[in-house]
Specification:
The structure is a single chain. By secondary structure, the protein is mainly α. Helices cover about 70% and strands about 5% of the residues. It has a two-stranded antiparallel sheet. Helix 7 runs antiparallel to helix 8. It is globular, with a radius of gyration of 20 Å. It starts with a helix and ends with a helix. About 30% of the residues are buried.
Amino acid sequence: MRGDSLLGGVRRVDEQGSRLLSLRTFSGPEPARRVEIAMDALLDLAELLRAGAPFPPRLEPDAAARTADARPDGGSRVGGTNGDEDCEDALVRRVLAAGYERGATTVEGFDDATADRIAAANRLETVDSRVIVPLSRTAPHAFNWRPVIEALLDRLEGVRSAFGRVRDRVRAAGIDRPFAAGCEAIVAMLESLSLVVERADAGGRYVRDRTDQRQGELLSTIADATTQLRGDENA
């Protein structure tokens, strides 16, 4: 699993919300297509997260410390500290933010100093000049969950607000049931997704020896809502 893929899924939903808000009316085929694209992106996102649940992973302190100081060349950093980890977190956040803004993150998109840091980082990988943010249950990539969860929370808040405004416009206009139901479902999906990520953030920060066993259950409600909605549309 990759953190940049998760943020890319949120970006796809964000784009559809922005397009819908830019429309003067919700007539014609485009609004329904935008809702369908957003729904598919949310389903993909939920499935990716469900595959990684429960997250963030719990790491044994001694194993985490040993692996956090490993270098890509097989050596080790001497005297790794929380400050080192914070610097790595900041670098991961910068890569995620760049990918969200540009749609893809390449080494060429950064200044030379940052590109060098990316090349030396043991928590990032570069494939054909594209920078990716791996996620796993073991260090060092397990440490990427923290900045990824923070980025998801930050972006989901704006996307949920945008689709809330779309839903309110649809309600005020008295739009026909299938499109209105789609907008309502997307808002409900975003709320479920935000709840999962918020709980993961709270668990990671304050109860580090605990995992949320309800993550998979909550994420499955997104797929259930879509299945029900599409079944109603085809009835």
